[in-house]
Amino acid sequence: MMKSVATLGSHCALQLLKGANDEKLNTILICEKRRERLYKRFNFIDKIILVDSFNEILKKEYSKKLDNSILIPHGTLISQLSSNEIESINIPIFGNKWILRWESDRIKKEKLLKKANIPTPKRILTPSQICKLSIIKRDGAAGGAGYFLASNEMEYKKKLSNLINKKTINKNDKLYIQEYISGVLVYLQYFYSPTKNELEFLGIDQRHESNIDGLSRIPASNQNKINKELTFNVIGNSPMVLRESLLDEVYSIGERFIEASKKLVNPGIIGPFCIEGVYDSNANFTAFEFSARIVAGTNVYINGSPYSALLYNENMSMGRRIAKEIRESISNDNLSKIIS
Amino acid sequence: MMKSVATLGSHCALQLLKGANDEKLNTILICEKRRERLYKRFNFIDKIILVDSFNEILKKEYSKKLDNSILIPHGTLISQLSSNEIESINIPIFGNKWILRWESDRIKKEKLLKKANIPTPKRILTPSQICKLSIIKRDGAAGGAGYFLASNEMEYKKKLSNLINKKTINKNDKLYIQEYISGVLVYLQYFYSPTKNELEFLGIDQRHESNIDGLSRIPASNQNKINKELTFNVIGNSPMVLRESLLDEVYSIGERFIEASKKLVNPGIIGPFCIEGVYDSNANFTAFEFSARIVAGTNVYINGSPYSALLYNENMSMGRRIAKEIRESISNDNLSKIIS
Amino acid sequence: MMKSVATLGSHCALQLLKGANDEKLNTILICEKRRERLYKRFNFIDKIILVDSFNEILKKEYSKKLDNSILIPHGTLISQLSSNEIESINIPIFGNKWILRWESDRIKKEKLLKKANIPTPKRILTPSQICKLSIIKRDGAAGGAGYFLASNEMEYKKKLSNLINKKTINKNDKLYIQEYISGVLVYLQYFYSPTKNELEFLGIDQRHESNIDGLSRIPASNQNKINKELTFNVIGNSPMVLRESLLDEVYSIGERFIEASKKLVNPGIIGPFCIEGVYDSNANFTAFEFSARIVAGTNVYINGSPYSALLYNENMSMGRRIAKEIRESISNDNLSKIIS
Q1: What is the rounded CA–CA span in Å between residue B240 and residue B21?
Q2: Is the ipTM beyond the 0.90 threshold?
Q3: What is the pTM of this model?
Q4: Which residues of C143-158 are buried (b: 16+ CB within 10 A; e: fewer)?
Q5: What is the pLDDT of residue A288?
Q6: Which of A295, A325, B32, C99 shows the smallest number of beta carbons within 10 Å?
Q7: Chain C, 8-37: which have a CB under 8 Å from a chain B CB?
Q8: Which residues pair with residue B192 across a beta bridge?
């Protein structure tokens, strides 16, 4: 009988395993040797399996070591393994593992957002077409490192060559240019329970990125040198709530995402997901990304969020919500509905 | 016997009704039909009364439908109904409904702050007198949309005409020009219990406004186009605590506000209010606004705040604090002291 | 028998005494008369000792008044008393009082960080050597008031003379010039228990400083006047979490700090400390300060933090953690290990 949850030691592992422990599930951490000292500090982790590198979990022996376990995917799984590798994992994965490919591929990502009728920034096809402030991104979940801004082709070329020189970007990296929309950035954290067919909105976070965050403390007249090196490396997150009048649309966006995912990636999204976007000066929302699994920004709410407090009388983190779904599915004998 | 609380479905309705439910009061939501789907998700709402538009509550039949209820006013009531309309509502209103007029009218607002001896930014009487950075605001609680910055008359005219073209501002809107004070913005959340004659300081929030918040992530050299369209549309809020050495003055500001309100708008402020201002580089406080009712920034603390934890052993949101006051006033038979 | 904790009325006194009360210790506040009204509001303070000024605690009579008490030091003790005075206090002090001198003296501070092998910003020895963006700081824990930025000697001289004219800086103040590193600023909050030889990472906060924080909301083209008056006066704090992949290094930094402190300031750090620094665009950490006692940023977590929730099932503020250490040391009869 399934009764353990396992996850990779990074990203939101502490939240996930603490939540699983709160829900009385066994907890297993797949941990790089160099990180063992960190994770040994936490007594809600029942078992640590040491690996040299995370792709060891692809080996056959691991499906045995992780017998009776469900693997919770997060950003580290996606950044360390290819979509093909993830799909070939022999351990039951919480959620729909096929949708992770749609997160990693920018063209698929845009397709899913469009199918959900969620506005996205205009895509700019070549550097020569940059005519207003744009953001340039690499493929994959690299946490924003190497992203940069440019207002025209010349600035694009200058900054790109600087980032290639500094080896932040590889000459062969696939780049993706989006219109930059300025406003309030939000990371909308959802949980969809396919067993109850219910969507829950559990929280919002803001991201802190280096060194773009530091720009705000440098007077215009001193920005010269800094400007050349601006990038968006995610360092942390902080909490936020949204104007209540925007909440109905937030739920609607989430529901459209669920519907679109059911059409494009059977059986559709399961469990946590995140829509990442910006509210412009007219309070209109544009999504520039989604994550089809738990995001690290939920770590802000290990204690519960203002929104989870409206739904639960306990401190319900996203990690605990996942564990609760697993525990209840085991009880109700419909675990197959939430794993892949 | 009064035992239900009712409120309009927006702004901080979820917090208010969750808090009332925690205090074992019945909860009623007056809800626009288009928002029914949102509010039906929350099981702490006992009854939803659907309306086409919020001003229906002015109709006689509603005083019957809301028999035995107390209406909690919030920002949506103020932005959707005129002061005259609010004062004519036939349902008992929590707090002093006459003071809401003082919030809506900028001249009255300035008068009350001055009476309380709370420093306010210098008012600038005509655009030609703008000689340093100033902020231009419209009347009413429009959540900051259409506010703009200007350093001189020319910039004022240029930006105003741009905002009129975009229909963010109406040609006939009354505008109010204030000296702009730069520093750390704070929204100080108070609760005054007239039955106990006690002031409680329950939290501080920061506001996130679009697209002014986005400015901080745009290098000076790329700001050209964005600059023309900067405004202050409130999107959300996040938590904050204040240097403890500033706390004594924070309480003193609150007490002076209570005293001034008693002199100017009998019987004075009742329940929640908020003083909104800025700490400059010398840590001196200047108030640019107040709200004479619960503010949406309290949604940050649905779980309780660091300051409420100093006063209560339960998670005490502002919404729950209001409900507690009502429940205790019912028990002690002095409800008349807290409604109008 | 020791069973009371005492502290000065400012900085984080409310958190400290609330935490002590939660741990069933008696609480004593040493309070300036002008602040009595504030602190009388909180019923977890068992006794208030009024003073005209905090240095009265150096008088002999106070060692009697505070019989059976342990004094918890915080930033106000350090800013109001000299290192010599602090070391001469006749009341048992929680932690290692000799290390406070290492916090106050910038040369000693740099030495301890270097001993711990924690990267620090390059020190710039004379204004003429300023060749890129630098920050200029005064000695002591003045909360950032009078700090300023300069990119070259001319800018340094201009801004300094402006701040001297405004009396924010004294002509004789010792100034310290550091390379300015732009990125995400973090204040890492640790607790070290010497009785258990265990390090706990309990939270991270961000600081809000005036008027540098206000800069982010002023377009480049309007910054002229503001720029001259930028400084870093701490007004408040807000919560944050860190990318989990950075957490192992965070613990390692804390452990190296503990080891270095044991070598340089016998018996080393005891209880709370804070490493204050910045993550640059490569997510590399540089520490620009440390505090060898509880920091005010812990006030963000009076309710507990996401990190304390991983370690404790109760809401564990830093103040409560200190009280817990004292209570347990009293029980185990090894109080001498945690006081000086």
Answers
A1: 27
A2: yes
A3: 0.97
A4: bbbbbbbbbeeebbee
A5: 92
A6: B32
A7: 10-14, 18, 34-35, 37
A8: B199, B271
